[in-house]
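We both want to read discrete structure tokens more fluently, so let's practise on a single case. Once you have written the record down, we can walk along the chain together.
***
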Amino acid sequence: MTIDQSTEQRPIAELGDLLYRFEGRLGEMYPIGLFPEGIRFHNDFEGRVVAGPFAGGRLFGLDQFLVRPDGVGEIHAPEVIDDGRHRVALDVRGYVLPPEGAPVPAIEAMLDPRFTFPDVPFRVTGSVLLSTAAPAFAHLNRVVAVIEGHVNLADGHLLVEARAVQRAS
């Protein structure tokens, strides 16, 4: 096997079809503890798909959330969309980025039961792999999507949009 080491510029993938826009709420963030890489939380979330082919459906899951010492959160969230006719499993990976210039609290402070996150939106960015047994959406089994949105870790409001990545021709 050889690795292509050419320096030829390749086309960049573009964002395509809206797969879903989700609006929901985080449940309580349960701190698991302090690890060398940061503090781990488990939190559930639930809401509705408000746009896209699954509009009106329920989206829910559990985020195994890690906040690193630099203040960046890492998302690892298995999710499900259920619109009453179709079910789609989502494997979401990404980042929650604090607002530019926001102070980053000491990671240990987040273990204090009195700790509260700032009441501001944090950027959500990442990717999602989709899988479904629904024949009408079988094409999603080979799609990678980009997610963008925001979450307010203080009040739990969550808004995320997923768009398919289109291969450049």
